[in-house]
Design brief:
598 residues; alpha/beta; two-stranded antiparallel sheet; 25 helices; globular
């Protein structure tokens, strides 16, 4: 239960108290600042507290936005201030100062919430001021102003605004025009029945897993059902975020579930398609694994570029200016968003092709579409980086270093060489990765040449991270490492040419990719990278790459398949247990993605 303290004399006919109660507040009345201080002291320290001017006139959703958003320690709108437990001490100090200054005079309640908000900001507390748009939030000082404010409230449909604001401000074409027009009403339906975003997110995952199971049957009816269920899973995927925004039910666990389940759903569906194709006598596991690798590397490019540049100073470039200019022309915005094949367009394409064609055709289309999108976005970002005059921060360099996922072997090499060799990081990472992948691709299974390539990779990869990654193209280092590791596993499993090797490789890459996604979301939430012991325990990218090449050279194909399976299970258990422990109990920030991920 949260507590709202109404300050000043209640206004006859005001619905304010009822509105606050409908938002879950226990309402208490204070006639002056001194009484406000007394009531505040009586509220348990672990509760949210709001101080609201009794003269407030506005929409209930304005109060909801200003007083109940769990993402902010303190938030305010005209005539009201709300704080979470972490800001309670600052609030108590501000109210105590007001009480002492007023001497108990009732007139001191006028603009009390505004003065408290200013005092909190002066005390170093970040106070969030929500964008209200057409919503009304005012503190009238006389009957005429009150009447005008009430008329303004009546002129705007609070519920319509709430529904519109539940939809992301920036989304893909398919999501905007084919899903959101009705999914927002589904979100409202869920809210009115007490369903939570986490429950809807879980339902979306279960639906996608059932879709993958239908695809795994290998029958036409199964493929049609899989396509339909995948689309419905995406509808639920949109609904959970809209429900969170509609009812402001943001949470740490919800942020984690929303971030990771999208990837789990898509990659599980790839596996279902591959199983279904195998039932029909067509082996497409290499295509399924290639699609997962390509999609994961696309995401790493997105994350690395954004982390390298989001807080860079003097962050300008002619390429970015041209992009902004194109965004000012309506039709180019949608074309450019569709070109990158975001999740809505991608899942729609997969669903339709699954229902109408074969898994092989579906994967071919997916690989071609994602490859084009990756080329388009990466080329644009390279041009931006080369033409951008920016100074990258230590935080950005630290984030990129964490995203590289360098393990104990890289640390050992750096200690021995003491970072003596320092050259263009992106070039070194590309050359090292290309060497190990080509060594695996050009050698027969069982050859030790890939081991030599992996050994050189172990020696070269630390060179790329020997200095802070602040160069123009240093954000390419993590994607190059991801591609090198994943493609090495793919190539060696394909070379083994034994039934089950590619599915085992799919499982290993999926487990490692989950670790990399988990690293990204921790960094984006300002919670730091996963603990160092975990990175060391699973070997780092260079250690895993070397291990896989040694196993391929020293084991038979059948034994190699078993070894890949064992490593996949071990890595999955380690990263999942640590990830679940962290996100459930560590109190990490609730960061929700407001953009459309690729």
């Amino acid at each position: 239960m949260s507590t709202a303290i109404l300050t000043g004399q209640p206004v006859p006919g005001s619905s304010l108290e009822g509105d606050l109660r409908s938002l879950g507040f226990d309402v208490r009345l204070a006639s002056d600042a001194g009484e406000t201080e007394t009531l505040l002291a009586a509220v348990p320290a672990d509760q949210r507290v709001a101080v609201v001017d009794a003269r407030f006139v506005g929409h209930p959703h304005a109060l909801r936005l200003g007083l109940t958003d769990p993402r902010f320690a303190a938030s305010a709108l005209p005539g009201a201030i709300s704080v979470q437990p972490e800001a309670r001490r600052a609030l108590s100090r501000a109210v105590a100062r007001e009480s002492s200054a007023s001497g108990g005079l009732a007139v001191a309640t006028e603009n009390l919430a505004k003065r408290i908000a200013a005092a909190l900001e002066a005390d170093g507390v970040a106070v969030h001021h929500p964008e209200l748009g057409t919503l009304v939030a005012a503190v009238p000082t006389d009957p005429q102003e009150r009447n005008e404010a009430r008329q303004a409230v009546a002129a705007v449909d609070d519920e319509a605004v709430r529904l519109r604001s539940a939809v992301k401000a920036r989304d893909g074409f398919f999501t905007t025009y084919c899903i959101s027009p009705y999914s927002r009403y589904l979100a409202r339906w869920c809210a009115r029945r007490g369903l939570t975003p986490n429950q809807v997110t879980t339902a979306s995952l279960l639906t996608a897993l059932i879709a993958a199971g239908c695809a795994a049957t290998g029958t036409r009816a199964g493929f049609v059902a899989a396509g339909l269920l995948l689309l419905f899973s995406f509808v639920l995927d949109c609904t959970d975020g809209q429900l969170a925004r509609y009812s402001l039910q943001y949470s740490t666990l919800g942020a984690w579930l929303d971030a990771t389940f999208d990837r789990a759903k898509e990659y599980a569906y790839y596996a279902g398609l591959a199983l279904g194709a195998a039932r029909g006598g067509d082996d497409v596991w290499a295509l399924a694994l290639g699609a997962m690798i390509l999609q994961t590397c696309r995401h790493v490019v997105d994350f690395s570029f954004n982390e390298a540049n989001h807080d860079a100073t003097a962050n300008t470039s002619p390429t970015a200016a041209l992009s902004d200019k194109l965004d000012s022309v309506g039709w180019t915005v949608w074309v450019r968003r569709m070109i990158v094949l975001p999740i809505g367009e991608r899942w729609a394409m997969i669903a339709v092709l699954t229902a109408l064609t074969t898994p092989r055709i579906t994967f071919y289309a997916l690989l071609i579409g994602c490859a084009f999108a990756a080329t388009y976005t990466t080329a644009g970002r390279v041009l931006r980086s080369l033409t951008r005059k920016a100074r990258r921060t230590d935080r950005a360099a630290r984030a990129l270093a964490d995203l590289t996922d360098s393990g104990p072997l890289a640390e050992l090499v750096n200690r021995v060489t003491r970072g003596a060799v320092r050259y263009a990081p992106a070039l070194v990472a590309f050359a090292a990765g290309a060497l190990v992948v080509l060594g695996a691709a050009l050698s027969p299974y069982g050859s030790w040449w890939p081991v030599l390539g992996a050994a050189i990779y172990v020696l070269l990869s630390p060179v790329a991270v020997a200095r802070p990654l602040k160069g123009a193209l240093d954000w390419l280092v993590p994607p190059f490492f991801r591609a090198a590791e994943y493609l090495t596993v793919l190539v060696l499993a394909a070379k083994a040419d034994v039934n089950g090797a590619l599915p085992a490789a799919f499982g290993l890459v999926a487990a490692v990719a989950y670790h990399h996604y988990d690293t990204v979301y921790r960094i984006r939430g300002n919670a730091g990278a996963p603990p160092h012991w975990l990175v060391r325990a699973i070997g780092g990218h260079e250690g895993r790459t070397l291990l896989v090449t040694v196993l391929a050279a020293s084991l038979t194909a059948a034994q190699f398949k078993v070894a890949l399976t064992v490593i996949a299970v071990a890595v999955a258990l380690l990263v999942l247990v640590e990830s679940i422990r962290f996100w459930v109990s560590a109190g990490a920030p609730a960061v929700h993605d407001e953009g459309e991920p690729a």
